[in-house]
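To: structure subgroup
Subject: Chain for Friday's discussion

All,

I'm putting the inputs and outputs inline so they're searchable in the archive.
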Amino acid sequence: MLPVVALVGRPNVGKSTLFNALTRSRNALVADLPGVTRDRHYGVCRLGDRPFVLVDTGGLSGERIDIDELTEKQVHFAIDEACACVLLVDAREGLLPQDRAILDRLRRAGKPVLLAVNKTDGMDAQAALAEFAALGVATTFAIAAAHARGLDALLAATQPLLPPDVDAETAGDDEATGTRVAIVGRPNVGKSTLVNRLLGEERVVVSDVAGTTRDSIHVPLERDGKRYVLIDTAGVRRRGRVEEALEKFSVIKTLQSIAAADVAAVMLDAGEGVTDQDLALIGQVLEAGRALVIVANKWDGLEQYDRERCKAGLERKLDFVAWARIVFLSAKHGSGLRELMRAIDRAGAAAAHELGTSDLTRSLEKAVAAHQPPLVRGHSPKLRFAHPGGDHPPTIVIHGSRTKHIADSYRRYLENFFRKRYKLEGTPVRIEFREGENPYAGKRNVLTESQQRKRRRMIRHVRGH
């Protein structure tokens, strides 16, 4: 396992900006507002001689309100698992009492501390360092995380603090691999509770306050010998209700997480049924071509009559994704988790299913024989052969003539035919039609009789495979 270095400090001192700079990523949400980060965010820094895991943490405000206390708890988890900590302070705001309180907490934990005085761009760096000399930290650095200045010296000082038995050959050990599962839904439907229940620990902040999760958090999970990456995302509300710039960025991160996932688990409140926003999120999943599992949470709190009504509503409103498995569970109490993981496994396997050209062509012939495509301007379209066009989702390319005007109903028929034939549960299936031009058009008199016989044998051979 790679060693862990934690970034800690007050809100809005630049921890997420430094995290992105050191991990060469844009994984952490950055905004000029305090309290953007609330959960632990992990990434691998490879800029020095030896790689290490970097943890971005929420700001320690010292306030005793619910969200701040929960955020502080996550910071303490990060400090406990770290071999060293980088304390960030703000050169423009100067030394504040909360900086001293955080440093005292790090010293009580017995962790080596590096002091990074951030936002020194345009300032006298030595004057900024002099103000923070009162903290008594021997290794202090003036940096500007937003411009990647001063980071080399900070990294060089970090290297000696790493355990001696870890080297660059273990760099891949902490890379999150496995089936990527994005857990998405409206605010306060239980996404973070589900992540914590699957992990068996308080990995992400959970609160009854809607909008607690603001960033997309990637968490590795190993269950029953299989590896996953759970992506806890911010709740998505109707566009008309999204007013704050920060929430708009959170929604963008959620949509990016859907696109980056193998499987999207759309979570809804079973007591409220399917809302318009739930349908909009499912539409985003379909547009991205991701495999889909519907998760009806808070099932334990419903009476039998309400459960029957919920099932009927789901069946009626989700008819357009009838191929997606619906799992009823209680994230709070842990019921239904096994069924959820099985549905995710099936959907992920279906999305990655490899199709063969010859078998697809034979299947296409059977589909056409069972149900001919509707006439187009009095002529029947000819569907000649099919081949795979990719996975995630499985894409089937069909070549033929008069394919541009094939009805959507026939496209859906073919989708359902291939889905049933190859048992593609939980994933959309895309059909692409290609107009195949006759390469011999206008050249009938050019071919000799021998050439024509060879052409006919070649066509029969292709169709036979």
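Points worth raising on Friday:
The longest helix spans residues 66-81.
The CA atoms of residues 46 and 160 lie 15 Å apart.

D.
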